[in-house]
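User: For a benchmark we're assembling, each entry needs the component sequences followed by a predicted structure for the full assembly. Here are entry 17's components. Please fill in the structure.
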Amino acid sequence: MTAPGVSAVKAGDTIEPLSRTVTQEQINAYADASGDHNPIHLDADFATAVGLPGTIAHGMLTLGILTQALGRWAGGTDRVASLEVRFSKPLRAGDTVTCTGSVVAVDEEAGLATLEVDATSSSGERVMTNGRATVRLSQQG
Amino acid sequence: MPDRSHIGRRYEAPGQVIDPERARQFAAAISGADTDPFPGQVPPTYAAVYCVGPSFAQLFGDEEVGVNLAGLIHGEQSFEWPAPVREGDVVDSSAEIIDVEDKRGMTFLTLAVEAKRPADSQVVCRGRALMIIRGAPQ
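Assistant: Structure for entry 17:
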């Protein structure tokens, strides 16, 4: 995978959207892999009792999917230099999340692109807002 | 419940090993039904395991702060990765409570986290996590 060159990237460029259906099985696997077994992710009765619409994905799982979307564009997730988001709405188990991003600035000297990033659920809700990322670009090309 | 007197409280979690098998399990969990698109690269958000997780475990176990885990929500997250972390790295992680606020009947707690690789004194992750602590289920 080749990283986009710093001179080839410009404001307005968009990354290829990445959609993934986040099943309860995937949430369970993420709970095991991350060690975060908060019952709002795993126990529907508990989630409902605290006012959620059912079990929800870990915000960090959605953030991980977003990082993969950025990594596909950047030529590797190790090129993602920073990421910040607000988890604005829960992503329910079984929902499909679509991660998108567009370049808002390029710092040629530092070799960094700044992107606005977003994640939207299949029910049309933005599960993340105020999303921003920086990506290390290749100095060649 | 956390209050402003807890601001400045620090948690240290030295010697976190980036275990290759665990990092791959984490990458697979993010990938779901897809194949891990970046085999051999530690997912940046694996910071949940080597940086944020160990600090949270200590924070949640800190009875003087008394975080109510029932219905705890992750509100905001930011990360900087000045250099990628690699499989086999050992990092020292630390965290500090930098803000506690009560709003709308909920408590908003901000934790600043950092992970440094002592082998080359490289900071591999800095971040801030905002946790929203809601009431217990009735």
